[in-house]
Amino acid sequence: MDTVTARMSAHHKSCDDLFGEAEEAAARADWERAAPRMRAFVAEMERHFAMEENILFPELEAAMGGPQGPTRVMRTEHARMRGLLEILAQAVAVKDTQACLGAAETLLILMQQHNLKEEQILYPMSDQALGPKAEALLRALPAADAGR
Amino acid sequence: MAIASLSFDRAPPLSVPLRFFLTAPLFGAAPGVLLLCWPHGMPVTRYAPELLAATHLFTLGFITMSMVGALLQILPVVAGSASPKYCASGGCVHVPLVIGTVSLAAAFLLGRPFLFELAGCLLVAAFGVFLLMLGHALKTARAHNATVNAIGFAGGALTLTVMAGVALALGLAGVWSGPRWALVDVHAGWGLAGWVAALVMGVAWVVVPMFQLTPPYPRVVTRWAMPLLLLSLVLGSAGVRLGTPALTAVGVVGVGGTLILFAGVTLSLQARRRRRVRDVTLDFWRLGLACLIVVAAAIGGSTVLKPACGARATVLLGFLFIDGFAVSVIDGMLYKIVPFLIWLHAQQVQAGGARPVGNMKEIISNRAAYTHLGVQALSLVLVPAALFWPAMRAPAAAASIASFAVLGANMGRAAWVHRRLLVTRGGAEQDADCAMPR
Hints:
The complex is a heterodimer.
Chain A (H helix, E strand, L loop, with lengths): L3 H24 L3 H34 L4 H25 L3 H34 L2 H8 L8
Chain B lengths: L14 H23 L11 H30 L7 H25 L2 H27 L6 H27 L7 H33 L6 H24 L2 H27 L8 H26 L5 H39 L16 H23 L4 H33 L13
């Protein structure tokens, strides 16, 4: 069954795959491979943030009665991840393996605990709270593999 | 479900888990000091007072200390549960757990009844508060998954372990004269397989796929591992209580089989990980899981084949489970949890003008963590060697102490970064209102 939880969780996995490929290439100092992989990963992360911040969160906040704590926390974590994505992109650009792996490790933990909260709580809550509106919202959310 | 009642930003202040993580290495190093000081070499019976002291310094002082600290931190994330008053209650668990563990080790070494009574009271207080907090967190949990179930199971096993342990302590204090020795195996079984292994398994369901980007655990494993473990422990305990060795053997083989299944599946998932970079947590887990397979296979095999299993072998298997499996896995987890929490805290206080902390590896470097892994692996070779060759006692003790000293130094360095950030921000008291955004 197509739900917000299924669709967005699948996109998390898609981003994870790109992360793994980019990090491995950087660890091997294979910059020719690392640079495009990292660009693709950053682009997919931005697309995911945009889906949530522009479509999902506003709908959820409206359904629940205005901006609330959980979506605020999610937006704050997006901002932190954007900071690390910038550092990663910069490290790949200057071919700095240590900076790249340090930022990647930090981003991975931040990203995974963020995803866990969304997949365990926020997305199921969205499916429950949005009811019939969820179907229209799903049409607005791109498929998980659209960017690959 | 009301979105406003969700508490992503109400996890405890960093000082709550950190106090547990900083104390644990001190207790972990203590058995090595005891080994160095034992005048007659390493005891080769599990009931030797020195060995009972060392065992509880490991299990209560390091393993449980670290697991309680980590649980207080991760419950809001894993269970999505509301957080009780962590600041005060963190201390309410930590202080009696520290003094209770020291009292218990001293009671074994000195054989003083009042120390057993003191230890019993303090540990009941520590675990009473902790189990109430755990119960509250699980009751208000918004996520219902295999990990939350496993944490609940582990909490139940801890309750039984503490009850049996207190009865044993009262027996040693001369206050109670119940069926003392029958309780020893129940206490050890529920403590090691129920509390320690079940919690590691429940946490693994989440963190192994998360940190190494492995496929998820097969649903059949996460669904049936805990019921199988529970059934095995109940059968084993019933066999002990009823004096039916065949029933006990079924329970022991069931526990061993469940643990081998868990370790085998985890190693197989890790082999298929999508994150291919070198990772110290992964390597600590592999070391720990290899020890777990050896111990579970040896215990299960000896139950079925009934060889003349010597006292040395029993002590060896206990050591490999406690220090080889549990301590190694916890070491690996600490290298993810502690630098991340401090990095996250740094992000919050950098606005106050502190020098930025760019990433987790600037808090604890790969080299420092891998040095620890090497020393830990060395101690897992030398301590068993000392069981059979007394001349190895001093090098074994030195390696064991060094392993926890390196861990303590790494944790201490991380805490120093945290402290520096607080000072820059303008005072440690501000930690209290610096709850981590979960």
